[in-house]
Amino acid sequence: MTIRPELIDELLKDCSDPREVLAEGGLLKQLTKAIIERCLESELDAHLGYPKHRRREEGTTNARNGSSRKKLKGAQGEIEIAVPRDRQASFEPQLIQKHQTRLEGFEDKILALYARGMTTRDIQAQVQDLYGVEVSPTFISNITEAVMEEVRQWQTRPLDAIYPIVYVDCLVVKVRENQRVLNKALYLALGVDMEGQKELLGMWMSQSEGAKFWLSVFTELQNRGVKDIFIACMDGLTGLPEAVETLYPHTRVQLCMVHMVRNSLKYVSYKHRKEVAADLKLIYGAPTEAEAQVYLDLFAKKWDRPYPTISKLWRTHWSHVIPLFAFPEDIRKVIYTTNAIESVNMSLRKVTRNHRIFPSDEAAFKVVYLAIQNIAKKWTMPIHNWKPALNCFSIEFAGRVPQS
Fold first, then answer.
1. pLDDT tens-digit profile of 99-145?
2. Residue 330: how many CA atoms within 13 Å on its side-chain side?
3. Whether residue 399 sits in one domain with residue 302
């Protein structure tokens, strides 16, 4: 519906200051109130079968019975409206239903603030400042509680049959449980589909990790439809490689080189960090596995005396370092780093930072789920270098890439 310009001019002709339109008790609020009340009157007309100020038809026993006052919370603040009534109390308005206390869209604004990491107390103050409406923390919690059903549906939704790459990482959050505050790991699995689009497959929370836990996670993914994963890229999470290789025996487990280097540098003094990092880059940046092995031997010869743990770490995990050497250099950057999910975690940390302690696991899930929905809106393009990567996958994983 298009509003005629002359109608707008008529409404604004007595308005000397444009700011009055949006002010408390201004034109916009008055107009909202008038439109709602007019629509409710029209609904009652249809319900009774005759318009206001007209004589009711013979045989009709029901009639108007004044109105009741109701306060609605909305984007213009609090609006008081008159809701028409009928004598038989059979009128059920659809625009503003019985027991409804807020206008459509008001909940979305509260959820948007919650998704950006604001606590219920922060939201309470923000709503008061923006709209002049007092809302209780319980009111806000009730709105966000409805999100949990969405979370459950999202966590059990069907998934694609094939994800060429799946990245796994974790985010640590503080959760109150049995009058104690515990550090819990919130694990995230980010898949890249056949079109190169990112999709968060699910999230799981646990105090400890291990093969049994990861087996349950990947069994869940399998039950939701994931039949094949080409490469699973991850940090050195305990038990994860074994679980993946059990359920997806043809999947190549690739350790994230960013995490490998970061874990290696934990043992290095500040004055040697740049030099050690440069020598490690020679290993994972080598053209072939054989050359990488040579560089690892040279690294051990140079650094084993001051830092013997580093070369031992790389040799222990060598079978999960070398899968990247099957691909050219530009493709390796797609698979050997969890940067894709690290960027997700960085955004989530900004959100969870305000919630110093979550009252429950569900509260953490709600915040992270809403934040993920915001983050996913930016995933409109395939990941960088996807087409060349897919061509390489077609050769390396011949017979497993569907030909459309």
1. 666 555 566 667 777 766 677 777 777 766 655 566 677 767 767 77
2. 10
3. no
